Predict the structure of Zn-dependent protease with chaperone function.
Amino acid sequence: MSKGAPAARRSAAALTGFLVVAGLQLTVVLLALWVVLGALPSAIALRVGVPLSLATFGALGYATWRALHTRHRVPAGVAVSRDQAPRLWELVDAAAVAAGVPAPAGVTVVADATAALGERTRMLGFIGGRRDLYLGLPLLQALEPGRLAAIVAHELGHGSPALGRWAPLAYRGRIAVGRIVPRIGRRNLAGAVLRAYAGVYRRIDAPFSREQELAADRIAAGHAGAAVALGALRDLPALAGMQRLFHAEYVGPGWQAGYVPDDVFGGLLRVLAARTTEMTMLRAREPEPSGPWDTHPPMAERIAALTALATPSGPAGPPSPAVPASSSSSPSPASSSPSSLSSSSPSSPPSGSSSSGGGSESSATPDDTGASSVDKPVDEGVEELVPDLPGLGRALQDVAFPPRGRTVVGWDQCLSVARTSEMEREAEAALAAISRAVGTTVPDAGHLLTLAADGRLRTAATTVFPDAPPEEATSRIVELLALMLALAALRSGVARWRHSWTGAAEVVAVDGGYLDLAELATAAADPETTESVRAYLTEAGVDLTAAAVDPGSARAQVLGGLVNLSADGERTDVLITDLGLLLVPGLPRSRGHESKRRLTRLAADGVPAGAVLPAEPVAASTGRHAAPSPGASPTASPAASTPGSPAATSATSPATMSAAASAASSVAASSSSIASSSIASSSAGSSGAAVGVPAVSPGSPAEASTVATKAAPGASVAPAAASVPLPGGGRFVPFGDVAGVTTLPGMRKGWVLGLRGGGNLTLRPALDADELPGGWAAWEEAVTFLAGTR
C-alpha cells in the first residue's frame, strides 16, 4: 500500500464532511422551526408560522445548493482532434499509460503557458465526468517533446490511483472545493458555516495534496526521465514570467490604444527567441518559500526528489533553456506558480501583470525576419506534434484575442501607436498641471516653448513642485520639453519608432538615423536659446502645434468593477477606470444574476477613450478639495462639468506631472551633442501600463483580468464626457468632476461624491452587491485618491 493511501482516505472523508455539515445545518434549522411552530397556537401556526417556516427552510436549502453547486467554465481555446495532431495524441496516450489513467476525452490548446486536466465533476467531485487536457500554446512552441511529455504525465498523474483507491476522489474533491468555496457569496445564508469548514478541510487535505504532487513528479520522471522532468519543472514558471512580460510590454499598451497585432503568438515567440538571457535568469531564480496553506511541497524539496531519481551517471544538471519551436505563435500572460509543474486550473488568456525586463540593446524591428530567428535549429519532431502550429496560433488568436472593436494591424504599427499613445497620455496630464499653474491653456509644444522663452515655464514648475530644489525643477522642465518635442516630431512625420524585442523602443529619424533630444530640450529650457531651438525645429520640418491623433478605438484603462450598487437610489453597476467612473444602469433584481456577466463583457470591451478624454486642458485652481458633507454644496466653478472646463483637468496632481516627467526622461536619452539631424531620442516607456488584456472573457473566459490592474486612478488627465456613446448607455463621471468624497458611517458602507458642477452622488452597495476581480480594492484606491490632494 502506498504511504499516501491513509492521507487519501482522510482527505476523501473530509470531503464527505461538506455534505454532513450542510445536512446538519439544514436539520438544525428544521428542528428550530418545528419547536417554534409547536409553541404557537394552531391557528397562528397554520396561517403564519408554516408559510414563514417553509420560506425560511427553502431559502436556506437554496442557499446551500448555490454554495455547493459546481459551475464549469470551459477555458477559451481550440480543440485539437486525433486526426489533426496524431503525434500529439500519441504523446498524451503514452503519458496516460504511464500514469495509469484513461486518456482524456479531448485536448484543447489555450493561450496561457499552462497545462491542466479539467474534469466536469458533480456533487463536490463525488461523481466524475468528462476529462479534458488543456495545453498552453507556449508549451507547444517552446518545449521539446520530452519536457512536454513530462508535463502531461505530471498532470495526468494527479488522478492516478498510485496513492490508493481513494486518491482520484480526493483529487477531484480538492479541485471542486477550490472552485466552489471562493465563490460563495458573502451574503449567502449557508456560506459562513461552509467557509469555516473549508478551513478544516484544507488542513486535513494538505498532507495528501503535497504527497500527491511528489507522486506526480515521480510519474513524470519515470515516464520522461528525471533530468527532463526537472527541466520542465523549472521551465514553466520561466515561461509564465516571460509571458507576463510580453503582455505588459508589447500587447497591453496596443490593446489599450485600440489596436491588436495580427500575430500575437508570433510576437511572443520572437521575444522568447530574443530574450534568452532573461529566460535563463527566470529559470535560475530561487523559488519563494511555500506558506503554511500551500498545497504543494516546497520547490526545493521537489527538485531534490527529482535529482535523487536522476540516472547514476551523474546528477541532473540545470537543463538547457527552453527554445521556441515555431515562428508563428506565442502565449499570453499566465499565472503559473513556481511551486507547481503547471497551473492547477486552466485559464483563458490573459491577465496583464506588470513586469519589467531589461535586456541587451537591440534595434531589430518587429517585422524584421532576423528578429524571429531561433538560436538553434528546431527539432523536426517538435513541429510534427502539431502539423500546422502557425495555423493553430492564428485560430487561437481569433478565440483568445477577439478585437472587440479594435483595429488589427501589424506589429510595427501596433507598437508605434501604443508608445505614442502612452506619451500623449502622460503629456496631457503634465500640460494640464502647467495650464492650471499659468492660468491659460497650454495645448502643445509650441505654447510650451513660448512659456519657456518668457520664463513662465520655470515659474509654473516652481508652483507645481513647491518643495523641489531648483535643480530638480529644471530637470522636470527639461524632461517635459523632451517629451513634447518628441511627440511633435512624431506627429509631424519627421521621426518614427524603432522597436526591439530585447529592450526599449526609441524614436529615430524617418530614414532610421539616430536622433537625440536631451541637449536640445536643455537648450529649449533656457530662455536665451529657446527661440533658436524653435527655429531649428521648424527648419527641420517639425510642426510644434501638431495635434494629437484622434484616439479612435482607444480604450480607457479599466481598474475594477462593482455590481449592483445604489447610485442616488437607482440600481447601478460601476466600472472604475484610470480616468473616472462609468455608471451603467443596473438590471432589475429578477435579473441580478446577469449583472456580473454583463459588466464583465463591458470591461472586456473597454470604455472608449474618445468618450472620456477632454477636448483640451484649461486653467483651474489647485489645492486640496475636501469632500463636502452630505447635503452641502461643494464649492466649484459653475461650468466645471462641461468638456474643457477646470473639472476636466483638476484631477492632475503634481505627482502626475512627475510621472509624466519620468516618462519624458526615458524619452530623452542622454547625449552630449546635437548632430545636424538631431530631433528626438525616445523610449516612452517600453513597459506598458499593466493593462489586463482580455481574452474571450478575461481571466477565465468569464472573469475580467482587465480589472486586475493596480495602477493608481487618476494618473492621467481626468476627462469630461464627450459625444462618443458610452457602453451600456451609462454615464461617465471624470475624477476631475469630483471635488471630494465622504464615507458614510454605518454597517452598510456608503460614499458621497461631491461634484464640482453642483450636487452630490451617493453610492451604496446593495444587498446583492458583487465585484469583478479586484473591484473593491480598485474602489478603495479611487476613494483614497479622491479624498486626497489633487
